[in-house]
Amino acid sequence: MNPRSNTVALLLSFIPGLGHLYLKRIFRAFLYGAGFFGPVAMAFLIVVEGHGPKDFAVLLLLFAAACWVVNMVDMFITLGSRPSYPPPGYHEYGNPGHDFGHGPGPGAVPEFNPAVYEWQRREERRKIILASFIPGLGHYMLGMMYRGLSAMTFFIGGAIVIFFGASLTRTGEFLFFLLALPVLWIYILFDAIRQLEKKQAGMELTDRTFFDDFSESRQEGRRSKTIATVLAVFPGAAHLYLGLQMRGLQIMAGFLFSIYIMDVLRLSLFLFLIPIFWFYSFFDALQLISRQEFGYVEDKPIFKGIKRHQRKIGFLIILVGLYYLTNEVLLDVLRRYYPDWHWPYSISSYFQTFIVALVLIGGGLTLLFNSPNRKS
């Protein structure tokens, strides 16, 4: 008989009812599937048609979420209590030459079967992976109580703080930080697998928190690659952590200043530069993280020769300040005291187009007349 894979059943369970259907539990598959997709479909119809109270749609979605959670918990309990397949048995008693008088019977001791040991390793790995889907539980099963407690507290506490901050400030943008939780969950999962591999390799496990690992690397004079990689998500932060102050400040200031300028001047045409800037900073940080393992990394600035162009930069900053002062103060005063004048509205609406055209023309003229000298 072809056994059902626990891993496949767990992955299919993320779609309510499908994992139980894979295990041929028809009633539970129908129960969880109907309990999830039924309320979701009803809530969708309420929102699309516009009929019915919105609060009822929210209650339906909450009920569907509760069904999904119960479905996952039921699958975890099922896989944990599911009888495993028996290990391969030992061989019959060996040849008379193997008899050293230590066998359980009058004959020789059983010959060693390596398949038994491999089966035990696979079973332990399966249980740890299943338990690690709940952050910290896999570490508990490995006997690392302190590390598991810190992982569970950090994950659940982070989620509580994010939801509390969103409810306290009444801003949905605060929920953006929930995107960091899957990254943390995956890190905890693979850390439990790494600790299991160390245990199966015969190495001693040290029960300490993740922060103790990071502080140990700092005491040895090395920067933590994990922290640097996480900080690389924000442009310039990883460079500052690696000690590249000039490069990090330039990248961070350039990223934030470009977002501010595009927001103030409403230059939506140049928004494509933001992801380019971010990807450049991220992959540059990853390269520097790799290089710092082999020695000292030089702090090379991104923008060289800023002092030579100090007057041009100052002139541009003055222009931006004058535009902001005119658009936010002067034109607003004119609208308030002279409501019959329509030209302030025209200036405010067409000034963005003027700025974009001026930047494009100025950049083109700079490239045209400052071309490098070609050698004949």
Automatic annotation (TrEMBL):
Keywords: Membrane, Transmembrane, Transmembrane helix
Keyword Cell inner membrane tagged: no
Residues that span the membrane, as ranges: 30-50, 56-77, 149-168, 174-193, 226-244, 264-283, 313-330, 350-369
Protein name: Multi-tm2 domain protein
